[in-house]
Design goal:
The complex is a heterodimer of chains A (241) and B (193).
Chain A lengths: L2 H9 L5 H13 L1 H37 L6 H26 L3 H13 L11 H11 L3 H14 L4 H13 L3 H12 L9 H12 L4 H14 L5 H10 L1
Chain B lengths: L9 H10 L1 H14 L2 H10 L3 H21 L8 H22 L11 H4 L4 H12 L3 H8 L4 H11 L4 H7 L5 H19 L1
Classes of the chains: A mainly alpha (241), B mainly alpha (193).
């Protein structure tokens, strides 16, 4: 057994007790053995240092490689997930808003569908009303407006004339005038069905002045609360406001 | 995709380190990766450069691996806590080093443990001899050994047993690996003289 093997066995704990004691004794007197022990320990330290440096270099490579795909800490993942949800939520809301018409657009659609053409029964027995309705349906709104104004001049509180005059004003873009007609109609409390408040609300939505949306909302709530004509449409409109 | 990658439990990593061989190497890397967020924590908390923190973190992981292999880590605290404490101490050492210009705070390997095996009278003789030696020169000489010898000496330095070295470097038995290792040491000794 050469010196290095003996030393290796000693430091690995493989030497029997007697040989171990003999080794320790000779170490004090045998300078060659002491020198070999010093070399052995130094070589092991050098190997450890070198191995450690290699391992550190390997870790450094790992760090650089994983830097671009570093797993996120849990808190960052939660934050990112929250951001994604927010973006999806806002995106979804925006998409929903794009897909569903606004209150003004709904009002437009409603006016277009319901009042672009009037039923002749509205005119009933009055020749003047019948004439006005015919003109209205023919698209001659100015003439129809003149007929209804003349009728209102004679019968200022005629509910049918107020409604028709208001509709002519609404469709010709004279919203202020339309609001006056519908407001007067809405004030009448003795009618079986009174669309005055609902039509005023529609007109205010169309006019779009600063307080109009709020006032339209108040009117629509009254229509819903009192179960007045236009309640179903009012409920749909109020969800948009 | 590492974003969704699950980290292995500490118990599996410890078992893998103790198993040795290729499994040990894989577990070393995975242990390093599992807690590498500490580099950013150290950078932020101690206001150190990222590279310095990365170096301290590597030293931490290597120290923890040594402790696990030597049985010094007894599992009285969570491994994460253990790593954090060592890392924190290394960061503080780094700050001291920077403020006092004191070098060698990362001198992680010490001869003390080996020397303690020797009786007092013999220890002082060996210590004197070591003091006259040049460990850096010896390190550079390891690089001049052949590849197989170099790998073997480094594996020995990492604490692999002769059985593990035989498996890793394709020797028939641990005994053959040991004989080859001692021959490599002899060659290194000749180069050193």
């Amino acid at each position: 057994m050469n010196d290095l093997e003996l030393i290796d066995d000693y430091f690995s704990g493989r030497l029997p007790v007697e040989e171990r004691a003999r080794f320790e004794t000779s170490l004090q007197t045998n300078s060659q053995l002491a020198d070999a022990v010093a070399f052995y320990l130094l070589a092991r330290q050098a190997a450890q240092n070198e191995a450690r440096a290699n391992q550190k270099a390997r870790f450094e490579t790992l760090r650089k490689k994983s830097a671009s795909v570093r797993p996120m800490p849990v808190r960052s993942r939660i934050a990112l997930a929250a951001c994604l949800l927010l973006v999806l939520g806002l995106g979804g809301y925006w998409f929903f808003q794009q897909q569903t018409p606004s209150a003004t657009e709904l009002a437009d659609q409603y006016i277009q569908q319901k009042y672009s053409r009037l039923t002749t029964t509205m005119a009933e027995k009055s020749d003047s009303l019948q004439l006005g309705v015919n003109l209205y349906n023919d698209g001659k709104l100015t003439e129809a407006g003149a007929v209804f104004s003349d009728l209102l001049h004679r019968q200022p509180n005629d509910d049918r004339a107020l409604k028709l005059a208001g509709l002519v004003s609404l469709r010709t873009g004279r919203y202020d005038q339309a609001i006056i007609f519908f407001h007067r109609l809405g004030e009448q409390t003795d009618l079986f069905a009174n669309p005055g408040l609902f039509l005023e609300a529609l007109t205010r939505l169309k006019r779009g002045q600063p307080t109009d949306n709020h006032q339209a909302e108040v009117l629509l709530k009254i229509v819903i609360g009192h179960n007045l004509e236009g309640k179903a449409e009012a409920e749909e409109l109020i969800r948009k406001l | 995709m590492r974003f969704f990658a699950r980290q292995p439990p500490d118990s599996d990593l410890i078992a893998g380190l103790l198993a040795g061989g290729i499994q040990r190497r894989q577990c070393e890397d995975r242990l390093y990766q599992k807690y590498d967020y500490l580099i950013a924590t150290g950078t932020r908390k101690h206001r150190l450069q990222e590279d310095d923190c990365a170096s301290a973190y590597s030293d931490t992981i290597l120290t923890v691996i040594e402790h696990i292999l030597a049985g010094h880590f007894e599992g009285r605290s969570e491994l994460a806590t253990y790593i954090y404490q060592i890392f924190n101490n290394k960061c503080i050492d780094l700050i001291r080093k920077k403020s006092t210009q004191r070098d060698q705070v990362h001198q992680a390997v010490s001869l003390d443990d080996s020397l303690l095996q020797l009786p007092d009278s013999a220890r002082s003789i060996v210590q004197q001899l070591i003091a006259q030696s040049d460990v850096d020169r010896l390190r550079s000489l390891i690089g001049k050994l052949g590849e197989k010898c170099r790998d073997m000496i480094l594996a020995w330095g990492e604490g692999y047993s002769d059985e593990e070295i035989a498996r890793q470097l394709n020797y028939n038995t641990a005994s053959v690996a040991k004989t080859s290792r001692l021959r490599c040491l002899e060659r290194l000794k000749e180069l050193y003289r």
